[in-house]
């Protein structure tokens, strides 16, 4: 079964939307920690994981389809989605460490 162009773009937009929400929550967590609100920061980090995982699942489904032999066309939209996944992963790691530093400094 071939991935239709509109389905392909829909998946890319869903990935971008989910990981974008995850990134926003991670940054909100950082701001909460900066104000000493560590419980709220942890809640936001946990909520962000849900959105990140959803985006990652969609991305993994595309990889599985291609690995099964389906030809997927190159797309700047998908490349952007992949870039967002990688940046959110990195930002989450850094913010988690920064929150720990804030926690230790108070």
Automatic annotation (TrEMBL):
Concerning CDD domains, the annotation shows:
PTS_IIA_lac
- Chain segments annotated as coiled-coil in the UniProt record: none
TM stretches of this protein: none
Cofactor dependency: Mg(2+)
Q: Which residues bind Mg(2+)?
A: 83
Is the keyword ATP-binding assigned to this protein?
Answer: no
GO terms, biological process: phosphoenolpyruvate-dependent sugar phosphotransferase system
| Cofactor binding remark | Binds 1 Mg(2+) ion per trimer.
Which residues are responsible for catalysis?
Answer: 80 (tele-phosphohistidine intermediate)
Q: Which PANTHER family match?
A: PTS SYSTEM N,N'-DIACETYLCHITOBIOSE-SPECIFIC EIIA COMPONENT, PTS SYSTEM OLIGO-BETA-MANNOSIDE-SPECIFIC EIIA COMPONENT
Q: What is this protein called?
A: PTS lactose/cellobiose transporter subunit IIA
